[in-house]
Every structure is written in structure tokens, then in C-alpha cells.
């Protein structure tokens, strides 16, 4: 009489163990160049039902800030769990036409997942600032452009039956040229005080809202595909971006508009995978995506990583560090310390204006801003000056658009000293690689690509040669 219950008990225990040991799928929805102009972040200009759905079934981080305001250093940090300035991946699009390797101790997220039996795929660009073999990280095929790097064409559909996956799907976001069914009109948007209220600026802002609507629709399609393939109940979805939208003072610069990221971690098919929901308002570095992702898959975080698990008990950041170095042919070095209320910015290269020649300088929308400034159209325009302050300090609570520099205000002298000290100590403790010149080989590669646009003095030796 006791044998039957014993058999059932053993079978039930085995089933439970098998269920518990099933590895979770992790899917990164990488929204390139996307600002958090969404209802879940308090902006109701457009509706985003699918992003809202992820938020309702997960955790929304309202104060996530990138470590870099441009794609390749940000991605190089996200995929290694190390600050780009620590491992030498801080200069935009380096290691493309010359050979450049990561430090030997550094591991890459898909590489780690492969070691744990995961199928890994990438659908979209990598944009890593080092040289690598595709098959070491990803399954599936890829294409490659000389200066832009490798882009994957992978999918979870090609894995072995039952094999867990770690996948990255590129949502082209702020670079998406598709139009939503009902686009928002430029006259319905608000213009930031640091831009002139002119048609081209309004159009760019409206374009980005429409790109967010398109991105939201793409997220809905991906969720439906997960359901169709029977993967929805065992997949954690993480939606985020790398840097801000392409507006002139935003992308590539260390103001919040270039660094403030959407970040939603969700398990809509099975809340038990995450066991957490709601809104988190504490400071988060985008770098922390790495450790958090590994821990969600129950994978040990390598000791070298500067990334932290946001769900670990006691998680806390007093500040987030951000860095901007060479972007394309424009050489610069800027660092920022961001706390809950204050932003400190250090401009190391005050011999050149903030808006020195860059990849966007020839574009009509950029020229229109300079023209408006010259014609005296009123807006907060100090960032267009030929003179550049060595330090900037902003009270984000009272000045969210960062237009009132308090660095020379004696009432804020102690705060300035405090944040300056934090940055100085961080530079020393991490051996910030931005304090050293870029290699002659890499600078020559940049010069060979951009030629006469390389006006910074660092390129002078190559102009002489040519």
C-alpha cells in the first residue's frame, strides 16, 4: 500500500527538480539611440502599449545612466562589464581597421553564456571596440562593413531543441526610418530650452517620438514571436538603450539627454522568473546590466567586472561615472559624475570648443541651429560658445536641462570640491585610459578614413606625412 504513494512522491520530486533546473532564456531588446520619452517615464506625448506592458510585468528603472554617450564605448562596456576607460575601449570605433585585442582577463557576455551551454545570437550590430572572431561569441551568420564592424543575422529559431538562449535584437530606435501609422506632428512637441524653437529642431524631436512608436510596435511583434515559438513563459526580456538621441547637444555629450536611458527588466510570460516588479528610482549605471543579466541566469559574475547586480541585496550607487573620448575624427576628453541631485562635468580639452567640427557639422539641422544662434533667436546657447569652461556643475533638481552652470558660484564651492575629488580619485583608482594618448596606429587609421576633417592637433604628424 505504501509503494504507490512513494513512487508518486519520487516522480513529483524529480519533475520539480527538472523544472527548477531549466535554464532561463535572456533576451536583450537593444533600442539604439533611444531617449526615455515614454509614458512609463512620465512623457505621454506618444502611447507605447508594449513598453507599458513590459513595465507592468517587471521592474522599471527611472534613473539609469549610460557610461558613455555614444554607441561603441557604451556597448563595449555593456558586453564586458567593465568601464571602457578601464579596459581601453573608450575611443569610438577603434579596432576596426587595425588589430586591437581585449586584455586577456576580460570576458564577453555571449562568450560566458556559451560556456554555460547557451545558444547565443545577435540580430544587429555589435559595435565592439576591439578585434574578435565572430564564432567565439555568436552562432549564426553575420555581415561586416569596413569601418562599422560586424552585424549578426541570428535568431533563437536555429538553436537545438530545448537549448536555452541569450540573444540580442537590435531595435534601430533613433536611427529607424520607418514611420508609424499615425505620426506625431512637430507642432505637438515641446522644445528644450537649450535649443532654438525652429522647424528643423521640432521636426527632429517629432521624428524621435515617431521612432519610439515604431520601436514599441517592434517589441510587440517580438513578444508575439516568443509566444508562437513556445518560449514566452521561460524568457526574461530586458529593454534598454546605449545612448541618447542624435540631437546636437544630446548624443556624444555628458548631459542627461545623452546619458539617461530606458531600462526595463521584465518577465511577462512568467513573473516567477523575476519575482520582482514595480519602479526603482535609485541610481543605476547602464554598466550594471552585465552583472544583472548573468545573475538572472544564475551565472557567476567574473571578479574583474565593475558591473553590479541591481537585484543584489544592498545594491547602491552614490554616483555614476560617464566618459566621452574620441568620437569619429573629433578628439575630446570629458568626464562626468552624476549623483541623485548634482552633475559635475570636467572638460579636459578647453583649447577646443564643445561644438568643434564633428560628424554632424555638415547636416542641415545642425547648420540651422548655428544660424538661429547667429540671428539672435533666444535660447540657452552658452554651449555653442567658442569658450569652454574647465568645469561644470548643475543642480539637477532645480535645473533638469543643465543650463545654469554653478561651478563659479561660491554657494556651491563645497559640492564642486566634493565631486571633483570623486572624479580625481576614480581616475587614479581605475587608471582611466583616457589620460593617455591614443596609439599612433589608430590615429593614422582615423586620419586615413576622414582626411581633411581631422583638424585636431593630434593629427598634425599625419598631415605632414601626406
TrEMBL record:
SUPFAM superfamilies, sorted: Alkaline phosphatase-like
Domain of life according to the entry: Bacteria
Gene3D superfamilies the record matches: Alkaline Phosphatase, subunit A
Alphabetized InterPro entries for the sequence: Alkaline_phosphatase_core_sf (IPR017850), GAG_Ulvan_Degrading_Sulfatases (IPR052701), Sulfatase_CS (IPR024607), Sulfatase_N (IPR000917)
Keyword Hydrolase assigned: yes
Nucleus in keyword set: no
GO MF entries: hydrolase activity
Keywords assigned by UniProt, alphabetized: Hydrolase
Pfam families, per the entry: Sulfatase
Domain Sulfatase N-terminal, chain residue ranges per copy: 25-298
PANTHER family: SULFATASE (PTHR43751), SULFATASE ATSG-RELATED (PTHR43751:SF1)
Family stated for the protein in its record: Belongs to the sulfatase family.
Protein's UniProt name: Sulfatase
